[in-house]
């Protein structure tokens, strides 16, 4: 059996391998959860400030909820990537609305980033 023929029309984005896209999405969701954990630790580590109000504590719990959601969605996307048939492609135009160039490159490119977007120190004001 031969592989499906793909014709890229001028001006159109090349088709994307859905499994690779889902795997990259899962990987990036894990990075986002890690960044939020760093933020949460930075907020909790603040010194010289009074204890947070009840409202502030609730808001910090919402950050923890977002971390849990990302921790669930990342592995789900990676599992979907493993379950997706190998030759399944989607239009490359699905990446057009992404604002971050590094995400577009990641999902359409061959390599994954192993460090979060922000490698620097988090300052809490």
> Which of globular, elongated, flat, extended, rod-shaped describes the shape?
elongated
Could you tell me the number of beta strands?
2
Rg over C-alpha atoms, rounded to the nearest angstrom: 19 Å
Mean pLDDT, as a whole number?
79
SS element count, helices: 3
Q: Classify the secondary structure makeup into a structural class.
A: mainly alpha
Oligomer: single chain
Q: In whole angstroms, how far apart are the ends?
A: 61 Å
Could you name the ranges where pLDDT drops below 50 across 5 or more consecutive residues? 4-9
Largest sheet: 2 strands, antiparallel
Percentage of residues in strands? under 5%
**Approximately how much helix is present in the residues?**
40-55%
Spatial sequence of strands, sheet with the most strands: 1-2
Order of helices and strands: EHHEH
């Amino acid at each position: 059996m031969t592989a499906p023929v793909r014709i890229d029309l001028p001006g159109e984005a090349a088709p994307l391998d859905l499994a690779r896209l889902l795997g990259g999405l899962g990987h990036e969701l894990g990075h986002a959860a890690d960044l939020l954990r760093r933020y949460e630790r930075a907020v909790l580590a603040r010194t010289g400030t009074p204890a947070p109000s009840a409202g502030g504590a609730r808001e910090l719990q919402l950050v923890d909820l977002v971390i849990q959601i990302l921790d669930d969605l990342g592995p789900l996307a990676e599992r979907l990537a493993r379950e997706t048939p190998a030759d399944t492609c989607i239009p490359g135009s699905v990446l057009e609305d992404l604002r971050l160039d590094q995400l577009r490159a990641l999902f359409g490119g061959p390599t994954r980033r192993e460090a979060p977007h922000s490698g620097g120190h988090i300052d809490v004001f």
